[in-house]
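Let us begin with a simple case.
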Amino acid sequence: MNPSAQKDTAIMIAVGRLFDLERRVSSRAAGRIRNLTIESLGDSIVLLGETNTYFAKQLATQVCREQFRDVALLNNIEVI
């Protein structure tokens, strides 16, 4: 496999894992996080969205840590 194809495959796997993670967080939070988005920024994972409780924000962090223990995590979910 050429380097370009390997990079494209790695990107597709990463996007798939982020989509799966977003689905898991959404499921565990049971609708308590609105406009949930999980993105990759360099070597970090960034959580975005809105919630009414710090519990839901912390729950999102916990779910992400279960899947990605050694990745920098920025939880930018806004508690309003």
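The second case is a distinct protein. As before, the sequence precedes its structure tokens.
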Amino acid sequence: MQSQKERLEFARHFTPWEKPLSWADKGIDAFHFVRDNPLLWTSAFAALAHYKPKLASKVLALGWGAIKVLKGAKKLV
């Protein structure tokens, strides 16, 4: 009886969080899908470089800078 009461109270408390957490799970799954499929993002960047070379160079510079900053921060930690 007590455990059932606690489960119901727990479920009522976290019901409002169910939908936002499901969206967060979907976002994490999408990130892992893109990370685990390098051919996908390499092809997307190749298409970007073909059709919009100026934008592609900016994206590449931004990504390269971000990687350098992250590697520097990782060394500090």
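The chain is about 90% helix and 0% strand. Residues 15 and 35 are 31 Å apart (CA to CA).
Keep these points in mind for the review questions at the end of the chapter.
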